[in-house]
Design goal:
Strand content of chain A: under 5%
Distance between the termini of chain A: 13 Å
Order of helices and strands of chain A: HHHHHHHHHHHHHHHHH
Number of strands of chain A: 0
Shape of chain B: elongated
Order of helices and strands of chain B: EEEHEHHHEHE
Number of strands of chain B: 6
Oligomer: heterodimer
Radius of gyration of chain B: 25 Å
Distance between the termini of chain B: 12 Å
């Protein structure tokens, strides 16, 4: 076979270098803008201060003679916070999954972009910090009804051995321990290989990856149940964890495409990551667009068919007002049909501008998906609780995420220098 | 089989035993390596040959570009198959459940999108698969049980360790003398002509 076109890595700009300073500056700007925006708008809209205590007390009163809900009906600042936190957490976990799957399958093509995935997955430490404010009793109470259920709520009473504050905290700690351990150890081992070129490191990472994937599957599933599904403690869906997983992998590949386009626009990895690799990243986005739709529809159709009130209520809430109905259609059309038709073409996937456009769209839809999972619980779907805070928190967290990415990717090569599959990956072509 | 000197280039001619009015239908050139084949294919393309092909023991990346093969029509055929399957699936169920034999099942509408999606989805996949398989066969002119290539014993190595270029006798530039010299110059270690 002809390897005359193989990229000579030594002539490639493959460190973040001065770009890390720019990323940190951009990230800081976004984070500060987000924070100021959130504080200013939050004050305008009365999200902080005594108002919250008052309303939760009122909700308690109403709870004793109103309908018994498994979810909180009062808007709080923690709802948009959870939306954005989950948006970035899922993306980060997608990065971890990418690394694990790369090793479990002994993948060749993805070697050139694996370091970027490792960098993204290390952001899970940052996500742990972002989740800390969420686990205080006040914020938990504002989000999850099961922390203080209505009196006489037997459904939550039955689930209380699982859904209770302490066990929730322990579980969350376990999830993050798993994620951080794997993200950091795989990254460390990979960077160490840059220096010593020890092939054994690859074998060891390969051998450990089945354990990693198994733990990843369990932790993501249960994290999805805990963080998002338990927002309505009466409702349940066994496929919910897979739904979250689909979002993780989809959003990560969109992020990966954007990172590559960004780095290449700044002269990094311009030849190492070729059109062929972009096409494969695009293929993964396409595949997980379909996978997400498959899972989302499976969940919908079974509940629609069985038509059992305790199951359908979750969808009824998302279809009974025109705004939420509209949002549901945005999910169907925008999260599936648009990216499906857009990403079918090989040429779209290979051109930087078009794949970046597709990736941005997919990320926007993923955020809309997280919003769709969290927000309709407020007021039982009778209101559309969109505020500018939704955006300001997103911008702020994006800033923090970019800073984390810059810190995570600097100080070593952007490419797994001495990976035994590097030459295979550099020469990779879609047959 | 007889060998003749054609100019300064040796060409093996294989003539079909049953042929009464033997005519050259194919020229085969054997190459040692994929790299030689790639270079040769590029030159063939640049020289403007139309009815010719490459035969390799394994997929050689970049050969399509070297040969100047235009993008295949197949994806569009598959797309049509998929759309037909999807729409056909919905129409079939709509007609069966709501028109031909309406039957009330657990209070659901006679025709509804959610209930129809699984079958429409499966038919999309099925007809896409049929379209891609059938379309591939049709575009390649398959099934075909015989090709002149099979008369050459040397050509059997195309499935093991040799790389071949074949030029169809109907190509406008088909000329035994000129072509065999050209192929030799490109690095072919043997040139054969099939007559039948």
């Amino acid at each position: 076979m002809r390897h005359g076109v193989t990229v000579d890595l030594s002539t490639e700009n493959r460190t973040l270098g001065s770009l890390s300073g720019k990323m940190i500056a951009l990230g800081t700007t976004l984070a500060v803008l987000g924070l100021i925006g959130t504080l200013a708008l939050g004050n305008l809209e009365g999200a902080f201060g005594g108002h919250e205590v008052e309303s939760s007390a009122a909700a308690h009163d109403a709870g004793s003679h109103g309908p018994i809900h498994g979810f909180v009906t009062e808007w709080s600042i923690w709802h948009p916070y959870l939306v954005s936190a989950c948006f970035f957490l899922t993306m980060t976990l997608g990065g971890l999954f990418f690394v694990l799957v790369h090793h479990i399958t002994n993948a060749g093509w993805s070697t050139v972009v694996r370091r970027l995935a490792e960098g993204v997955s290390r952001n899970v430490v940052l996500m742990a910090l972002i989740f800390i404010p969420l686990v205080f009793p006040d914020s938990m109470e504002a989000l999850y009804k099961w922390v203080h259920p209505d009196p006489g709520d037997e459904i939550i009473a039955v689930k209380s051995s699982y859904l209770n504050y302490n066990w929730f905290l322990i579980r969350l700690a376990i999830y993050f321990t798993i994620w951080i351990t794997f993200a950091w150890s795989y990254h460390r081992s990979s960077v160490a290989q840059d220096r010593d070129g020890d092939v054994q490191r690859s074998s060891r990472m390969s051998r450990m990856s089945p354990v990693g994937v198994a733990l990843f599957a369990m932790s993501v599933t249960f994290a999805g149940y805990d963080l998002l599904m338990s927002l309505d403690a009466h409702w349940f869906s066994t496929i919910f964890g897979v739904y979250i997983f689909a979002g993780c992998v989809l959003s990560f590949h969109a992020l990966l495409a954007l990172i590559v386009v960004f780095l290449q626009a700044n002269g990094r990895l311009t030849r190492a990551v070729s059109d062929e690799h972009m096409q494969d990243i695009g293929k993964m986005m396409f595949a997980f667009t379909v996978f997400w739709a498959y899972i989302a529809f499976s969940q919908y159709m079974l509940y629609w068919y069985a038509n059992i009130p305790e199951e359908t209520i979750w969808f009824v809430r998302r279809q009974s007002t025109w705004m939420w109905s509209f949002w549901s259609w945005v999910m169907v059309v925008g999260h599936f049909f648009v990216p499906f038709l857009f990403l079918v073409s090989k040429h779209i996937k290979r051109k930087r501008a078009t794949i970046a456009l597709g990736a941005l769209w997919v990320l926007a839809m993923h955020w809309a998906d997280m919003y769709y999972l969290v927000m309709p619980q407020i007021s039982n779907g009778t209101e559309f609780p969109f505020t500018m805070i939704d955006i300001t928190i997103l911008v702020g967290m994006a800033g923090i995420f970019i800073i984390g990415l810059a810190l995570s990717l600097r100080g070593h090569s952007l490419i797994a220098e001495k990976d035994p599959r590097m030459s295979e990956s550099l020469a990779f072509e879609n047959a | 089989m007889n060998a003749e000197m054609n100019g300064s280039v040796e060409v093996h001619t294989i003539t079909a035993e049953t042929a009464t009015d033997a005519k050259a239908v194919l020229m085969l050139a054997e190459f040692e390596t994929a790299d030689q084949l790639m270079d040769a294919a590029t030159s063939m393309r640049d020289k403007g040959f139309k009815l010719w092909d490459c035969h390799t023991p394994y997929p050689v990346h970049g050969l399509d570009t070297a040969m100047g093969i235009r993008p295949t029509l197949l994806p569009w055929i598959v797309l049509c198959g998929g759309i037909t399957g999807f729409c056909g699936g919905l129409l079939m169920q709509g007609w069966m459940n709501a028109v031909d034999y309406p039957f009330l099942i657990s209070g659901k509408p006679f025709f509804s999108i959610p209930a129809s999606i699984p079958v429409a989805f499966e038919l999309t996949i099925l007809l896409s698969a049929f379209a891609s398989f059938g379309g591939m066969l049709a575009l390649n002119g398959l099934p075909r049980f015989y090709r002149p290539h099979f008369r050459s014993d040397r050509f059997r190595r195309a499935t093991a360790d040799r790389f071949f270029i074949s030029i169809d006798g109907r190509d406008r530039q088909f000329d035994i003398g000129a072509n065999s010299r050209f192929l030799r110059d490109l690095g072919a270690n043997a040139v054969e002509v099939i007559e039948e």
